[in-house]
Amino acid sequence: MTDRFDCYYCRDNLHGKKYVKKDEKHVCTKCFDKLCANTCAECRRPIGADSKELHHKNRYWHEDCFRCAKCYKPLANEPFSARDDGKIMCGKCGSREDGNRCQGCYKVVMPGSQNVEYKNKVWHEECFTCFECKQPIRTQSFLARGDDIYCAPCHEKKFAKKCFKCKQPITSGGISYQDQPWHSECFVCETCRKPLAGTRFTSHDDHVYCVDCYKTDVAKKCHGCKNPITGFGHGTNVVNYEGYSWHEYCFTCKKCSLSLANKRFVINAEQIYCPDCAKKL
After folding, report:
1. Taking CA 125 as the corner, what is the angle to CA 169 and CA 100, rounded to the nearest 5 degrees?
2. CA distance 154 to 133
3. pLDDT tens for residues 185-206?
4. Distance CA 268, CA 157 (A)
5. For residue 97, how many C-alpha atoms fall within 13 Å in the half-sphere facing its CB?
6. How far apart are CA 163 and CA 161, in angstroms?
7. Lowest-confidence range among 100-114, 182-196, 253-267?
8. What is the average per-residue pLDDT within 205-211?
9. Is the pLDDT of residue 1 over 60?
10. Nearest Cα to 261, choosing from 243, 244, 240, 281?
């Protein structure tokens, strides 16, 4: 006599019949579907004994129900990701959903794609463009002005100070004179072209001169000593009268050598005299 082999629940004889072993119990397919089957997380229907079941983190699906929530691609044999909201997504859609968004077009920057990262933000390479010329910067150097990005040429053109002499942008260094910027190579003597940075110089009619060239070519000559009136050092003060100029210390009476700066004087035969000496001529 053969031992009985019955369903744990309905006690039907299972000899020659299909059954399922569940928790060490033998169950007929009818009872399994009714009492033991897991519920599909997608369609909410039981996953019967005749269905292929997939599970992930205590959740269960019919094989045909295990699809990407975004593109509906079957994922039974594909890589996938589970989101915090319970949705299952294929690798591509998951990356789009969770990936960084481009600051230019606001679309997702896919992993492995060409991109630019700057200050914890990311752009597609073709979206990282100059604010002024709109061209992709790619491997060029760039500068930021607030939230705007500029390629080096546009930044120079728009923001760099212009040299007072050549009117071209000053990209680095430079010299400031009378509140005007200069390239160091442009700040030279008007006559001999000697660089003037760090040396004594003076200006005349918007031109700058070294001391030697100013004395020789520009400075007025003192009517008294015949030397240049440069304004450097001793003799800074100048006396001018009827087209002639004197160092202040040279503006003295021809006869008694009394200083006549800020005093009455008399000119005779292009010489200056104090009033007392003039009476004796």
Report:
1. 125
2. 7
3. 899 999 999 988 888 888 888 8
4. 62
5. 18
6. 7
7. 100-114
8. 87
9. no
10. 240
